[in-house]
Amino acid sequence: MENEGKKDFNAMLHRAAGMPKTQIVTDPKTVAKYGGERMHFAPPIDCDRVMRRVPFGRVIAVGAIREHFAAQNGADFTAPITAGIFVSIAAWASFQRQGDETPY
Which of 9, 26, 40, 69 qualifies as a cystine partner to 93, CB 3.0-4.6 A? Predict the structure, then answer.
């Protein structure tokens, strides 16, 4: 990301922007690629909460976080691009904070 030092990632972390929500996808290519039409959007703070639950020394992939949200919310899949962006926001927010770190 450009100009990370000038952005307030902790403010972004707490910005829900109408999420969580589940949306029906009608694009046949997307449905075929992800195996369903119910796409879930989880807010950045939810990604942060999941990341914090990972034990020290263990690793979790963004795909596993997405699968968790989809299963938890009765969706077929979680939006891949927003999930990746929100995991990045959680990591940058942790970097900017003094203490109270989120593992990333």
Answer: 9
